[in-house]
Every structure is written in C-alpha cells, then in structure tokens.
Amino acid sequence: MQITLADIEDAARRLAGHVLETPCVQSRTLGAITGCEVFLKFENLQFTASFKERGALNRLLALLEAGQRPLGVVAASAGNHAQGLAHHAQRLGLPAVIVMPRHTPAVKIERTRAFGAQVVLRGEDFDQAHDHALELAETQGLTLVHPYDDPLVMAGQGTIGLEVLQQQPALDVLVVAVGGGGLIGGIATAAHALRPDLEIVGVQAALFPAMFNAVKGTGHPQGGRTIAEGIAVGRPGRLAQQIVREHVADLLLVDEGDIEQAVLMLLEIEKTVCEGAGAAGLAALLRHPGRFRGRRVGLVLCGGNIEPLLLAALIERGMVRSGRLARVRVVARDTPGVLARIAAVVADAGANIAAVNHQRTFSALSVQSAEVELVLQTRGAEHRMDVVRCLVQAGFEAAAA
User: What mean pLDDT is predicted for residues 160-181?
Assistant: First the structure.
C-alpha cells in the first residue's frame, strides 16, 4: 500500500472546483517574532474549516468514478474528517454515519449533524470511536472512510503539497501538524517528488506523541486532555509511518502552553481563527526557534474548528500571561467612599476595572479594614505595576496579586 505523485495529481483533478485552493502568504509580523520568514497556508478557510474535506472527497469521488456507489459511509473522527465527509456525502447523496469520541467539542458535533450525518458518540478517544465504526461498517454494510490510513484519503491531503509549492516554490522547510499522519504523509509524498531538497518537519502535541514514539523508538507517555484534539491520536497510520520514516526530517513535540500561545497569536496578528491542531506548526516555531531561524518556513493552518467558549477562555488566559488582564490587591480603611477613591486612582492611571471583590468578613485584617481585589484591563505588565505605584502613592497598601 503506497501513494505516488500520480495519485496526488489524480486527486487534484478530482477535487478541482469542489474545494478551495487556499492562499499561502507571508506573515511579516510572525516572521519578525520567530526570526524566520513565515508563510501561512490557510486551510482553515475551507468550507468546513479544515483540510480534511480534500481526502474525504477524493475517496468518495474515486469510488463513484470506479462505478461503486456505497449504501452509505461511516467514519470515526474527532470532528474535522467528520464534517468533511458528511458535507461531501450529503452533496453526493450518500448517507453518512460518524462516530465521535464522547468529549468531542459541541461545535464539531452540531456542524457534523448540520451536514445531514448521523452522529454516534462512543468511546473516550479516537481509537475507541474507530473500533465502533468498524463494527458499524460490518453490521450495516457501510463503506469505511478512514481519516488518515487510506491511500486515497492521503492522496487528497497531498494536494496541499502541490499547491504550496506552486504558490511558494522557494520554501526551505514545511511544518505540518501530525496526528495519524495522513496530512504529513500526503504532503511529504507530493513535496519530495517535486522538491527532494525541501525539509519536512512534523509537529505533535506532547500529550499525544504516537508518531514520535513509533518513528523515534521512544516511550513518551500518552493521554490527557489537549486543546489540539484534532491530532490526539493513539495509533498512527501504518502507511503514514512508512512515509514519515522516509521523507520527514524531524518530529517535534509542543506543550499545551505553546499551542495556546500560537492560537492567540494567529487570532491577534493574522485575524484568523485556528483550532489547537491548526496552530501546532506555529507552536513549533515558538518552542524551537533555533531550529528554524533565518529560513523560509511554510506552516499549514490545517483547521479552524474551535469551541467558542474554549477560544474565549484562551483569550482571557493569554491576556493574563501578557499582563493585560491583571489582579491587584488593595487594603484600605473601611470607610464610606473608599471604593470611589480607589477607582479614581485606577482611572487616572489609565486602567479599566473589569471586576471588584470587596472583602470584609473572610479576612485576617483589622475589623476596620477592607480587602479589595481588582481585576484590571491594562496595557501590559509594566502598566499594571504603574497602577500599583499610583495606588501606593495615594496612601493605599497595594500589590499585584
């Protein structure tokens, strides 16, 4: 079982006019921050906000092209393959059943159902969901469309490699998120057929280093809750492993904090929404800057399906880390008007009060004193300390909490 450049070119022919040829453009700001030239391939702009529809559609069209019209299709997916398969199955008039892990983000479940698929929640992770999908394929006569360990699916994903090298032919490195390996397998096959000198680097979440362990022979523990659930795969694809060994120069691991920071930077700097897996490539540049310094680096933003509440939480956590959302503790005499005076000092210092907790009872302070905890919107860590200094100069006992 293998794929070739011809398979990927066939996939490109099938997909023409059905999926978006996404832009691949330079980000000068991210380049200045990371010390290299950064080029972003915006696969999060696909109709289902993920590259996954390329492989799913190629598989379906190849079946129909061969005169095989299935009774229906079934797949296990954390969400992006589910949406891509459901969308195109609906377009082609094919029933679709999608098995998702129980903790899949609600936004991915609802969007998959909106494409007409029957959603079954089963298992704690992709592997358990996939086992159930195999059962359904056997008992209901459905055609299994694997999200990554399928040559036709992988060839569809490989069309990204063709596009990237047409759009940015002078890249030195291409950085790709890795879950089961279908994306990097397809891209690496296409890229090295056209540019054998192009370095391909894979990125995995440190909590799910399945491909890293398989290829490097390491035994890193695996499991946990990751915001990069799209690449939280316990068993990498067999075909993908073979391609990674032959064509991928390196595999890197990134922590949850790296991924969070990358999601926020893409949102704030590029004004684009990426899920955790989609931001993994930028997370690698932030985590391993020396690895890419001074080079022309392509990043595949492979998905943008992130739970809105999770994104809101990431934004708040990012503001805290940067000092733009800060807590300040103030101790003052418990007298009428004291809160107004504290608020006036904060306002004069140019900060905005987002929340106030005025504590009298649960405190070890004198009964005539009150503890006030302020949550402030500031311009950063230095501004936060300026606010604290202004409060102290005004006669209050104050400190950053």
Answer: 97
Q: How far apart are CA 332 and CA 341, in angstroms?
A: 10
Q: Tokens 């302070």: give the residue.
A: 365
Place domain 323-400 in its CATH homologous superfamily: ACT domain (3.30.70.260)
E strand or H helix at 24: strand 24-27
Supply angle C-alpha 381, 383, 385, rounded to 5: 75
Task: Considering the domain delimited by 5-51+153-317, tell me its CATH architecture.
Answer: 3-Layer(aba) Sandwich (3.40)
Label the pairing between strands 96-100 and 352-359. unpaired
Question: Bridge-partner residues for 9, per DSSP?
Answer: none
What residues does each domain of the chain span? 5-51+153-317, 53-144, 323-400
Beta bridge partners of 338: none
Work out the number of other CB atoms within 10 angstroms of the CB of residue 182.
31
Question: pLDDT by residue (tens digit) across 16-61?
Answer: 999 999 999 999 999 999 999 999 999 999 999 999 999 999 999 9
Examine the pLDDT at 364 and tell me if it is beyond 90.
Answer: no
- What are the pLDDT digits (tens) for 303-343? 999 988 999 999 999 998 888 999 999 988 878 888 899 99
Axis crossing angle, helix 52-65 with helix 5-15, rounded to the nearest 10: 90
The string of DSSP letters for 130-142 reads HHHHHHHHHHHTP
CB contact at 8 A, 143 and 70: yes
Phi, psi of 276 (to 5 degrees): -60, -45
CB 320 within 8 A of CB 378: no
> Which residues are CB-neighbours of 227 under 8 A, at least 6 positions away?
256, 259, 260, 263, 275, 276, 310, 314
5-51+153-317 shares its CATH topology with 323-400: no
Closest listed residue to residue 396, CA positions, set 343, 324, 347, 357: 343
* Record: fold of 53-144: Rossmann fold (3.40.50)
List the beta strands (DSSP E) in 84-205. 96-100, 118-121, 143-144, 173-177, 199-205
Q: Please, are residues 208 and 233 in contact by the beta-carbon 8 Å criterion?
A: yes
* Euclidean distance between CA atoms 126 and 331, whole angstroms: 51
State the pTM of this model.
0.90
Give every CB contact of residue 298 below 8 A, 6+ residues apart in sequence: 24, 39, 40, 41, 164, 168, 171, 173, 174, 175
